Amino acid sequence: MTDPSPGLADEFVDWYLSANPIYASLAGAPGHDRTLGDFTAAGILARESESRRWLERLQEVKGGGFEDEIDRELIISALRGSLAYEAWPSWRRDPSGYVGPVFSSFFSPFLNRLAGEEELVDAAAARLAEVPDVLAACRANLDPELAAPLLVERGLGQARTGRRFLTETVPALVADERLRARLAGAAEPAAAAFDELVGFLGGFEARGDWRMGEGLYSTLLREREMLGYGAAELRERGQAAYDELDAEMREVARRLTGGSDDWHAAIAELQDDHAPTLEDMRAEYEAETGRAREFVRERRLVTFAAGEECRVVPSPEFQRPILSVASYLSPPPLSTSRIGHFFVPFTPDSFTEEQVRQRLRTNARAQMPSIAVHEAYPGHHWHLSWVADSPRRARKLFRTPYFTEGWALYVEKVMREEGYFTTPAQELAHLEFRLFRAARIIVDTSLHCGDMSIEEAEHFMTTKSSLTPGTAKGEVNRYCAWPTQAPSYLTGALEIDRIRADYTAAGRGDLRTFHDTLAGSGGLPLGLARRVALEG
Question: In terms of domain of life, where is this protein from (predicted)?
Answer without folding.
Answer: Bacteria
